[in-house]
Design goal:
Layout lengths: L1 H25 L6 H7 L2 H18 L2 H21 L23 E8 L7 H11 L3 E5 L6 H8 L5 E3 L9 E5 L2 E10 L7 E11 L6 E8 L8 H19 L6 E7 L7 H10 L28 E7 L1 E8 L10 E7 L1
Parallel strand pairs: 1-2, 7-8
Antiparallel strand pairs: 1-11, 2-4, 3-4, 5-6, 6-7, 8-9, 10-11
Helix pairs in contact: 1-2, 1-3, 1-4, 3-4, 5-6, 7-8
Length: about 350
């Protein structure tokens, strides 16, 4: 029994040291791409430190127990704070703040990387109907899918871009409301990724007074930052898109959506918030983690799909939707238009 307790105590201490070491390295994401890659797993460090804390309290005694308990509590608090401090309202849990326009016009949007090999359009149609989605942005749409997908959803979403006259670049936009001013822009030319960001306006009619509400939407699908070059490309793709948004001075409502292949803890994400002055918000304790879809527990996935906003939009709800055969879950947000 003594040997078993010694072994378990040693495992608990070693695991705690590993959590502390990796978390510490992740804090230097602005210095090196590998540190930035480790920052992607910040919520894992919250979970890992709590698990380690339980093991330390059970198996350790004396000064060792006191030191490791304090260390794991610090890591748990700091890493969880990192999941909240960038938000517009870090202390808003469960429901949005009370506003004067919760009974006005609402606008529900969804971001979904459907996976190029996943071509079951019937499932997408059923999902859009059940969730009553107004705007759907898809990634990994291959060229032969453009017209069939447009036809399949045309009864619900009569407006679609692109319409087959241009290279789709794996994007497709489907909407219940009219789409205007659709344009693309090459970002990250320096690293020759040929990534295109997209900008367009959604024109939403007001039922009572026949006024039109316009929402300008930006989207980009970035590189996976798995080495130094790809990390720099990912950072620049997001930065250039953020600068494009920042130059949009007079638009009343802006959304920025997409599969960015980086999480809310990364330097690239923080840079987007800083440049474009966008709002990031979640009302759930666990972030909206969407990838990989084969992991059934949301807390163990990564939040690499995003919806940010600013202007006359009030976030009512944001949640993880269905995977529908993709390696990504969708992410859905519902807004009140002010």
């Amino acid at each position: 029994m003594y040997i078993l307790n010694l072994l378990l105590r040693s495992i608990a201490c070693v695991f705690s040291l590993c959590v502390a070491l990796v978390y510490g390295i992740s804090l230097f994401g602005h210095v090196h791409w590998f540190c930035a890659l480790l920052s992607v797993f910040t919520f894992y460090y919250t979970i890992g430190s709590l698990f380690s804390l339980a093991a330390i309290l059970i198996f350790c005694r004396g000064r060792l127990r006191l030191v490791f308990t304090a260390l794991m509590i610090v890591i748990a608090v700091c890493s969880f704070a990192q999941t909240r401090y960038l938000m517009a309202d870090p202390f808003a849990f469960g429901r949005p703040p009370i506003t004067d326009n919760l009974h006005g016009k609402t606008f529900k949007v969804a971001q979904y990387n459907k996976l190029h090999s996943n071509q079951n359009h019937d499932r997408i149609l059923k999902w859009v109907e059940e969730d009553d989605i107004d705007l759907l942005i898809l990634q990994e749409v291959i060229r032969p899918e453009l017209l069939p997908l447009k036809r399949k959803l045309s009864t619900i979403m009569p407006y679609a871009e692109p319409i087959g006259k241009m290279r789709p670049d794996a994007y497709m936009v489907l909407s219940r409301y009219k789409i205007e001013n659709y344009e693309t822009k090459l970002v990250c030319v320096k690293y020759c990724t040929f990534t295109r960001a997209i900008r367009f306006d959604v024109v939403i009619p007001e039922n009572e007074d026949q006024l039109e509400h316009r929402v300008r939407v930006y989207t980009v699908h970035t590189q996976n930052p798995l080495n130094d070059t790809l990390y720099r490309a990912n950072y620049e793709e997001l930065e250039e898109t953020a600068l494009w948004i920042a130059s949009d001075k007079d638009t009343e409502r802006i959304l920025f959506m997409g599969d960015w292949n980086t999480t809310i803890y990364s330097p690239a994400f923080k840079n987007v918030l800083k440049i474009a002055r966008l709002n990031h918000q979640s009302y759930d304790i666990v972030p909206e983690n969407t990838w990989p879809a084969y992991i059934p527990i949301k807390a163990l996935r990564l939040s690499i799909d995003h919806i940010l906003y600013k202007g006359q939009l009030n976030l009512l709800n944001k949640y993880v939707g269905k995977a529908l055969g993709s390696d990504h879950h969708s992410i859905i947000a519902n807004f009140a238009i002010e």
